[in-house]
Every structure is written in C-alpha cells, then in structure tokens.
Amino acid sequence: MSVDQITPQEAAAAAEAGALLVDVREHDEWEAGHVAGAVHIPLGELGDQLAALDPTRRTVFVCRVGGRSDVAAGVADRAGFAAPANLEGGLRAWEAAGLPMEPDGAEVV
Prior knowledge:
Helix content: 25-40%
Strand order of the largest sheet: 1-6-5-2-4
CATH architecture: 3-Layer(aba) Sandwich
Mean pLDDT: 93
Distance between the termini: 31 Å
CATH class: Alpha Beta
Low-confidence stretches: none
Structural class: alpha/beta
Number of helices: 5
CATH topology: Oxidized Rhodanese, domain 1
Oligomer: single chain
Largest sheet: 5 strands, parallel
C-alpha cells in the first residue's frame, strides 16, 4: 500500500486540524530550520520512537525533499498508523509556499 503524498498546503491544513508533523531529518538539519510546530525524530531513530506516537492521529512525515519522509511514512503505514502521509517536495516545497518555519526566517539546508 502506498502512503498519501500531500502538498505543503494540505499538510498545513492537516496540522491545523490536529495532525502531527514529524521531521525525520538529522539533528543539524532540524536545528537549521523546521516546520513550526513539528516534532523531531530522525529517520534512524524512528523505529525506536514510533511506539511513542499515537497511531490513530493523522501523521505527516517531513524531510528536506520528500525521500526520507516517504520511507518514514511507509514504516508508519506498516506499523498500522491511520493514514500516514508524506510531505511531497519536503521542506523545500514548504518553504517555497511561504509557510511558517522555526526559527522565523529559517532557510532549508
């Protein structure tokens, strides 16, 4: 089964409606800038931390361009998460859409 591929606008709307955004990039990438309100779980740590997430909550996975987050969404899908999604185009697309980043004005590295 393939996971949903959603646009930055759809991801922002999902977050407003209560979805959890999970950034799976490495620590240095996260610190350089990330989606406002996202949580950070590097892809390499996802297997150990997946159980701490609510599998019934819509979860959108985020990385720089969408590759690692697609893998993460697949892991969540196989673990039984309800409708995990991948942010298509990743943070580069999010930033290009002018959506909020932390810290304010951060640029994707």
